[in-house]
Amino acid sequence: MRKFEKFIANRSFYKHVLTLAIPLMLQQLITSSVNLVDNLMIGQLGDAALGGVASSNRFFMIGLFSVMGILAAAAVFIAQYYGAKDQHNMKEAFRFSILSAGLITILFFIVAFFFPQHVLRFFTDDPSILVEGGKYIKLASISLLPFAISMSMASAMRAVGQTKIPLYIGIFAVFTNAIFNYVLIFGHFGFPQLGIVGAALATIISRFVELVFLLIVMKRKVFDFTTKIKDLFKVSTKNIQKISLKALPLMSNELLWSFGMASLFKFYATRGKEVIAGMSIASTTADIFFVLFAGMSVATMIVVSQPLGANNLEEAKRNGYHMIGFSTVLAMIFGIVMFGSSFVVPLFYNVSEASQHVAANILRIQSFMFWIYMGTAQCYFILRAGGDMRSTLIMDAGFMWSVNIPVVAIFTYFTGINIFLLFIIGQLTDFVKLTLAYKLIKKEKWLTNLTIDEMTSI
After folding, report:
1. Ranges of the chain whose pLDDT falls below 50
2. pTM of the predicted model, to two decimals?
3. DSSP 8-state secondary structure symbol assigned to residue 230
């Protein structure tokens, strides 16, 4: 038992973590639940429409995860500067996050808006999916830029412990999306019945609504990182270099990881249109349970990054190991509930029986693996909170491209095994990944005060 003591904290620590994590988890839960309802609405249009939206969103995921990489790195600096009470540099880190996020999303918007068929053909050659997906991706790409700016503001708020504001606004945005989906997809209350085009328009409306409300809050409530628009481009060379040194590996990791996930989706899609629809159902359902990741991510940033910024290295170290133990136990509970959901949720979709079967079994496989996913992710959050971006790149995208993707690619194109065996083989590599992640934690290179070691190399 003694060797497990470092993973066990007192009740006040768990209470503090849950206070930090629950608001974001609730926001993500509501978002994921409404997304599930949205997915159900689109699912009423058939396998092709569901597959078209799923393929489009896989591409958007690459861009948004790249933005999240930049924002996560900037948030580490905002959190540590907050701990060090350095308001000037907090503002510069926030400006950097907005400018970087905007630049990345503009690039992805150009690709999706002007070359939609090229994007969709990466995932599938199914004519019906290409037609439906083509209607959706071009319009939905317009929502990327307002969403990126909203993410920048929400991320900065969470970095300083202000989690409730983005929670409330996020909830309002997802309900806006759901309402307009219902109205525009099916043509209720006098609106035209637009089908998949209506789903894209609903996404655009909700993203702009979210942005407007966040801007109003930023105008009326002054945060330590608040900046004037005229000062937006005022970021010192020192901070550009310092944040970029941490952001580039993290952004590269998120880009490579999300592109890797898109590639895995492509591999699984070779097993048929029903697999694309089924995996879309499973993914949207699983997102309800992956809210745990969002909660542990923001909690880790605060309980590890802020002590590091205040130069309390022992406290940060102790908190890091406590987070591993707590998040793993929570993941086991979530996994049990996730297994139960596999018997219910797929049945609500108006898709083929084969698609429902795929969705149910993918969810069951993921439920058994959930504690592995969480344990690995928690190690990632700790490494990131301390600015050890090189290790995050090695354990996440590095592992995916050197082990996970080659293994799945070989079994995809050189065997005829069914989707379930193929998916299980891909997931089993995560046991090795967890071992690697924990070894990187034990090296404790993440115990770094970035506010002191300003030009620490990665």
Report:
1. 453-458
2. 0.70
3. G
